[in-house]
Amino acid sequence: MTELTAAWKKGDTVEGYRIMSEIGRGAASVIYLVQEIKNKQIWALKHVVKNNPKEQRFLDQTEAEYKIASNLDHDSVRKIPRIIKRGSLLKTNELYLVMELVDGISLHEEQPDDLATTVDIFRQTASALAHMHDRGYVHADMKPHNVIVGVDLAQNYTAKLIDLGQSCKSGTIKKRIQGTPDYIAPEQVHRREITAKTDVYNFGATMYWVLTGKNIPTAMGVGGDSLTGSRDDSLIAKATPVIEINPLVPDRLNDLVMQCIEVDPSNRVEDMDIVADKLDLILGILRADPIQAD
Q1: CATH tag, 13-99
Q2: Which one, of 88, 100, 94, lies nearest residue 162 by Cα?
Q3: If you classify domain 105-288 with CATH, what class do you get?
Q4: Are 27 and 5 in contact (CB under 8 A)?
Q5: What's the CA gap between 17 and 38, in Å, rounded?
């Protein structure tokens, strides 16, 4: 089967996996809940099909996602243990990505009720991004949609970073604009080098939205929804401080978020390890005495 519209149905057997249900769709992909027949293990199976030459980029992104995931080993990053290629001897036109099933709800759909838990989710995510950076990669599409929040057996909240489809080696200059308008960094819009500082910005924009319910001004400008319009860096408005929108946010956390979303990368927090350390400090203070979190 090579037509994406002709989706697999429940009970079908595909590449040694039994389809249990469809759980998501992308521009050129369908994601299924599946059970591996030989050992009964449950996975998410991403099926990507190239129906015309313009869709080659979806295959390329999927292969890159697998290669990058294969070089990562962090509890808060979704694991992708296998890729299956199908097509002719010299030409792949269909891919299956076997992915860790992540059970939970995206940070975009639902946020924790208390600030300490929210900061803990931030800390886990920052640690995952720091791990990627240590291995030489940038996520490049950090946003609330790509953090899945679950609960482990000890009833602790857990964060899992997903969707490495736009991830790349640090220092990459992409040929076209990639990113999500409400979280995109200026260097992504203007197709400059993508570095760890890009993730710092995207992550800062993510924290800002979770804490305030509002998006920061970005370089996308008019037409941003289609990634066509853009503002020069000097014209990007300063975001209102988090604490002015949500007075419950402590000064330390407000300052960290605002430092992450500096337009000039040289003015941002130095790296994601520092972000994770600061969040760990804030979390410790919140848990010990919320009143002293400032």
Answers
A1: 3.30.200.20
A2: 100
A3: mainly alpha
A4: no
A5: 8
- Quote the CA–CA distance of 62 and 39 in Å, as a whole number: 25
Structure confidence at residue 7 (pLDDT): 75
Residue ranges covered by each domain of the chain: 13-99, 105-288
Of 67, 50, 46, the residue nearest 59 (C-alpha): 50
- Select from 144, 240, 229 the least CA-distant residue to 183: 144
Reading the block at residue 86, the tokens are 């199908």
State which H helix or E strand residue 186 sits in: helix 186-189
pLDDT tens column, 177-225: 888 999 999 999 999 999 999 999 999 999 999 999 999 998 775 444 4
Q: Going by C-beta distance under 8 Å and a sequence separation of 6 or more, which residues neighbour residue 264?
A: 233
The two three-digit tokens of residue 149, written as one number? 């929040």
* Cβ count within 10 A of residue 5: 7
